[in-house]
Amino acid sequence: MNKKGSALKDALQSIFVSGAIIIALLVSLYLYFQVMGSPTNFEGGNPKGQPLPGDYLGIIYKGGYIVPLLMTIVLTLVIFTFERFITLGRAKGKGRLTTFVRHLQGLLNENKIEEALVACDEQKGSLANVVHAGLIRYRDLQSDASLEKDQKILSIQKSLEEATALEAPMLSKNLVIFSTLASISVLIGLIGTVLGMIRAFAALAQAGAPDALALATGISEALINTAFGITGSTIAIIMYNYFSTKIDGYTFRIDEIGFSLTQTFAASLKK
Predict the structure, then answer these.
(1) Alpha helix (H) ranges present in the chain?
(2) Residues ≥6 apart with Cβ < 8 Å to 22
(3) pLDDT tens readout for residues 183-223
(4) Which of 3, 72, 114, 185 is deepest in the core (most CB within 10 A)?
């Protein structure tokens, strides 16, 4: 990929990330004010009053203005979870990776380079793209008498490394969003918790009888923000670990088949 193509791809990626966050924020604001803040969720039709018994939409609304931010985090996580599933599904290609690797290893052992290239074209995954680049170089070096054996092996390895460097960013892209939101979610939830507790203690500090409504609202705000913050962080951590494990598996397969390709080529030079 040339520099212009790479720059365009990065620009589109930035637009996608920004657009996803903005859409999540707008949806969260709409749900908070129009759905959760609907008068039908509260006693007397007044959003400033108590939620109807068992009405969780009204209860969440009482979490205060920090709630839309926490909802934005959760929706953003959902969006990028689907994005990662789609991207990694495309990176996997067709069929099982284990079966594909074994099939390639068998073709390489029999020195069936053209059949291996066809198999890579049919698989259409990141692993296949890396191996395809290595096989092209493998085929060219078989008839190249100008290089020594060690130089040819190094050339194969370099081709595999360059192809891997092109595929790796696509696999790990956007994972930083999960790790970032895992921390931010807890911190924003903590801010909401503190604000809720301030409101609750303010109700207790009044002269005479405490304001029961303000006290209940403050405690409710604190607990709701705590729950949302923990929920967002939990989702982010689970998804980050899951996708990291999947990417490590792909990387291992790429290294495995790259090693097999290099060893097969080295063995063929001994003949």
Answers:
(1) 3-30, 56-61, 67-92, 97-109, 113-123, 126-142, 149-172, 175-204, 212-270
(2) none
(3) 999 999 999 999 999 988 888 877 566 677 788 888 888 99
(4) 185
The rounded distance, in Å, linking the Cα atoms of 220 and 55 is: 13
Domain that holds residue 144: 3-270
How many structural domains compose the chain?
1
Q: Which backbone phi and psi does 256 adopt, to 5 degrees?
A: -65, -50
Average pLDDT of the residues of the chain: 85
Nearest to 260 by CA among 145, 118, 148, 103: 103
Residues 32, 59 contacting (CB under 8 angstroms): no
pTM: 0.84
Question: Shortest CA distance to 134 belongs to which of 151, 114, 153, 156?
Answer: 156
